[in-house]
Amino acid sequence: MSKSFTIHDLPVEERPRERLVKFGEQALSVQELLQLILGRGIAGESVAVTAQKLLTQFGNLQKLSDASIEELSLTKGIGPAKAAQIKAVFEIGRRFSTQTVPYKSKELTDPEKVYRLIKSRLKDYAREHFYIIPLNSRNYSIAEVSVGSLNASIVHPREVFAEAVKNKAASVIFAHNHPSGDPEPSEEDLVITKRLVEAGKIMDIEVLDHVIVAKDAFFSFKNKGLL
Fold it and tell me: Hey, what CATH topology would domain 103-220 get?
């Protein structure tokens, strides 16, 4: 049986880790970066082959990022542990991207700034994700509350306002995405928002806005006078 090619068969200076140290991460191809994330291959298959299989199977980084643990694990050489590593790397990237436009809590009364803050986290998801931004007089946080289907988010007031109470929020902003690319609210969006506003009044937590994020546009309930 012929020996499988591995990273160690490459000259030291051509291995991904050594190239990154010498030339920086931007010098590496996507496949090489994936090799570093995965660490090692499996018996009979090098990590380079596994990384290439991932790219071939999903086609691009966006689809790879959207893939579930189960979908990633369908690739030979990718078990739950490596799939979790891949998901963690993409999630760190998403979270970092939301911190590149820092605002003070009081500035988030502007829907445009809410959109700029949250769009990197929401605009490329294949399913609907519902987020809450609890605000107090000093700061804010961002928390995911639910993940729905392509057409609907399943949102319960008790889960939403649990985040607000935990963060000692005096007010909140909601945000969710429309994978269709159309930011206009659905009938369900209108019903859910009304329900949450009413729940907020009971708890003395003001709902400042609900922003729907599409790829290159957004809809603000506040701007449209729907709160």
Answer: Cytidine Deaminase; domain 2 (3.40.140)
